[in-house]
Amino acid sequence: MSKIYKTLTIAGLDVSGEAGMNADLKTFEEFGVYGMSALTVIVACNPKNNWSHDIYSISLEIIEKQLETIFQGVGVNSLKTGMLGSAELVNLIANTIKEYKLKNIVIDPVLVCKGIDKIMVPDAAKAIKNLLIPLADVVTPKLI
What we know:
144 residues, alpha/beta, 4 helices, globular
């Protein structure tokens, strides 16, 4: 019997299926990895407004409940982040990594959406740089 490798993505939901949690779970499946997700934001494009992005954050309390279910109920072999909508959320994730002594950490600092030129949440970007990058085994190539 082979061991099931479990990976968690803490990311946003891109309703188009092109990015975020959707893309992560598809990739995990392609590599035979059991994928789990903790939803941070929902991103929808507005076709009536030049396809601008509408971003709806999930409350920190709900994200904490998702993480509790995953870490205390299922367990994790690796973790990947995606869109993180606040410095408080980044802090929660950094503390979770330390509390559970997680290994195999991939930090994907999603700071902008396609078609947006500026960093969406500057406080989150600073927190990612200061709190998550030092804990990472891999960081995807983006400027922060």
